[in-house]
Design a protein that fits this description.
The protein is mostly helical. The chain has a domain at 24-87. It is 60% helix and 0% strand. The chain has four helices and no strands. Helix 2 (33-49) runs antiparallel to helix 3. The longest helix is centred in the C-terminal third of the chain and has 25 residues, at 56-80. It is elongated, with a radius of gyration of 18 Å. It starts with 23 loop residues before the first helix and ends in a 5-residue tail after the last helix.
Length: 92
């Protein structure tokens, strides 16, 4: 990681959650569904291309776990970069 030189304590960024913030759609958007769908598709292609057979329930469970992991990674990334994104013109 690179050092951005940002001091979070003096950045003016308010990390406290807003009252009544977020509906289900907001939380789904936080998981970056377009990126998540690419990861799930890649996992599906891997399951199809792999030699041998896999039980369909196990394959579905694997794809669900991949989707949850990708969504969680997207949400954590957005949380981690919130202070930097608040300072960028493109994302502010």
């Amino acid at each position: 990681m690179s050092d951005t030189g940002l001091d979070i304590s003096r950045s003016g960024f308010d990390a406290s959650p807003a009252v009544g913030a977020g509906g289900v759609g907001d939380y789904l958007a936080l998981m970056k569904p377009r990126v998540m769908s690419l990861v799930v598709f890649t996992g599906f292609v891997g399951l199809v291309a792999a030699p041998g057979a896999m039980h369909p329930v196990l394959a579905l469970a694997a794809l669900i776990c991949i989707a949850v992991g990708a969504g969680a990674a997207g949400a954590l990334n957005m949380w981690y970069d919130a202070d930097i994104d608040a300072k960028m013109q493109r994302t502010a």
